[in-house]
Write a structure and sequence with these properties.
Blueprint lengths: L1 E7 L4 E7 L4 H12 L4 E6 H11 L6 E4 L8 H13 L7 E6 L1 H13 L5 E6 L2 H7 L4 E6 L2 E8 L4 E4 L9 H17 L11 H7 L1 H5 L3 H21 L14 H10 L7 H18 L5 H13 L10 H9 L9 E8 L2 E7 L1 H5 L1
Parallel strand pairs: 2-9, 3-4, 3-5, 5-6, 6-9
Antiparallel strand pairs: 1-2, 7-8, 10-11
The protein binds glycine.
């Protein structure tokens, strides 16, 4: 078992993260022991409910089952969750438990952050992407017709239970989606300013096969490394004023890929991988890195066999990138590689990207 903790000094809040391969029933006992008699509402992904609902053993009346897909992270479901919490008479002393991927975590977290001005929430991530990224750090959100994650809060969970056993049943594309974020971490590692030298790049190249085969211990170690990097960043900059922006490597172009395909064709991680390719190409064009580093990055990506994404019309993509919430009215903001595992923020005028 690996026990980590996140300390948010500005809020005087600290919370544990446990990474443990364990049976669902053991994990359930730990959740109950953490709840310590609190009343609760479980927000659970439909897929996870089908696969693990019986073993998890929550009563129907205590559950809000969320269909899968980004489009479910909407106002309607947010309202339904709040109404269900009200119906269950949850008080400020009670809790919401999010069991699922990033969509469930973001939506349930947002509901928890606003219900009675904020109640406890517990993250139980069941996808690789949620285990390595979205379950830690307190970003909560819902999507609107104007774009993804445009309404949300920074609101930290009270505990995160990561059980890599859930990943055994994750479908291949969702697994690869998580790997997109993992690879991103390898390209930002030194900029994360973690006290420990974790060397994710070496870990990835030494363990390609074991990772693709989802070998339990390897996945637990992989998650531990990514979470340690994320903790290091979030502890230094919870609200994304500076350092946390580096987590957006690959996301400026990646979000445009998701948008131009209506969030239907590619998973978030697949789009991020395309965004990484774009970022490395742009960094070469701008003389930030030499071509060898770009070839090295291409090689790392190739090892994990991501799908091919076609080149979209660049002027159209630029328009979409200008709408990214990190961009300003004039400049498009990118996190770009500067050296091996080192990144920095850059702003470009649209015409400077077309060059
Ligand atoms: N997923 C990026 C962040 O948590 O800041």
């Amino acid at each position: 078992m690996i026990n980590l903790s996140v300390n948010i000094k500005s809020e005087n809040k600290s919370y544990p993260i446990s990474i443990e391969n364990q049976s669902i029933s053991t994990m359930r006992e730990k959740i109950f022991s953490f709840l310590n008699g609190k009343n609760f509402l479980v927000v659970i992904s439909e897929k996870v409910e089908k696969l693990y609902g019986k073993e998890l053993g929550f009563e129907k009346s205590q559950k809000f089952i969320l269909k899968d897909g980004e489009k479910e992270k909407n106002f309607k479901n947010y309202k339904k969750i709040l109404e269900k919490a009200l119906k269950l008479k949850l008080t400020r002393q009670d809790a919401i438990i999010a069991i699922g991927g990033g969509v469930v975590g973001d939506l349930a977290g947002f509901a928890a952050s606003t219900y009675m001005r904020g109640i406890s929430y517990i993250q139980v991530p069941t996808t690789l992407l949620a285990c390595v990224d979205s379950s830690v750090g307190g970003k909560t959100a819902i999507d609107t017709s104007f774009g993804k994650n445009l309404v949300g809060t920074f609101y930290q969970p009270d505990i995160v239970f990561i059980n890599p056993n859930f990943l055994k049943t994750l479908d291949e594309r969702q697994f690869k989606s998580g790997m997109g974020e993992v690879i991103k971490y390898s390209f930002i590692e030194k900029s994360c300013k973690c006290d420990e030298e974790l060397n994710l790049t070496n870990f990835l190249s030494d363990n390609v096969q074991k990772i693709l085969e989802r070998e339990e211990k390897t996945l637990a170690k992989l998650i531990e490394i990514c979470i340690k990097l994320k903790i290091s960043v979030v502890e230094k900059d919870e609200k994304e004023s500076n350092l946390r922006k580096i987590l957006n490597l690959g996301h400026t172009y990646g979000h445009a890929v998701e948008k131009i395909t209506n969030y239907k064709k590619y998973t978030h991680g697949e789009a991020v991988v395309e965004g990484l390719r774009f970022a490395f190409n742009l960094a070469v064009k701008k003389n930030l890195i030499d071509k060898n580093y770009k070839y090295f990055a291409d090689d790392v990506i190739k090892k994990f066999k991501f799908c091919e994404i076609p080149k979209f019309d660049l002027p159209k993509m630029i328009k979409l990138m200008q709408m990214d919430k990190k961009s300003t009215s004039k400049y498009i903001i990118f996190i770009l590689p500067k050296d091996y595992s080192v990144v920095e923020e850059f702003s470009f005028l649209p015409e400077e990207i077309l060059l």
